[in-house]
Amino acid sequence: MATPLRTTVKKNNIKTTAKFRRLTKILTRYHQALMTHGKTDHLDRTIRNTQLMLIQEGNVCKEQWWQAQLEKVELAARCNIKFWKHIKRLSGGSNSHTPILKFMENGSEKIAKTDEQKVNVFTKQLEKTCSISAEENQEFCHETEIMVENELRRNTNELTTEWTINLHKIRDRRHNTLPFNNLDIVNSIRSLKNRAPGASGIRKPYFSNLPPNIISNICHLFNCCYAPHI
User: Fold this and answer.
1) Which burial class, exposed, middle or buried, applies to 183 when counting CB atoms under 10 A from its CB (0-12, 13-18, 19+)?
2) Which pTM was predicted?
């Protein structure tokens, strides 16, 4: 008895390779031969081998799709609108969806279909990859660990955040001035281009009409940010 031909069409936005399309045509012909001449051991074995090759090539198409999306995000990073558009698309915020994700759990292969499942699988795999067992931890050189700990202890003041910002160490004693003054802030605001605002929604006209006390506060913040790095 001939096995019925199953035709399922599923649309997606994954670009297939030439090998994938060629294997699809070959598998279709094998199924037609199966319907016409019936099942034989040789034909059944050939169909199974072709199906395995098709699955492998399908995984290659998915990997190429992911790589293409990453490249698009990198290119779109130059434009804020395009960048968040691609991030929204990859995170499942638009109609396009990411391919299913296969993973191993308790010795069996499982599939993550929803975006939430894919995030959980990715998080667990990343934690597993970055974790260090007790046996691996013992393989570190103790002398190197002691040297690193001593180095961190000697440079604690430079590595930890200062609770009190000291502006005297960045003040020019000769002219009694700080690295940033109010005129620097005003000139920076004038040099801004009147483009679309970011997440804050503040446009250039708002900055251009700031009162003097706000300019002084912004200048003070710049000097405070600059002080810990000296």
Assistant:
1) exposed
2) 0.34
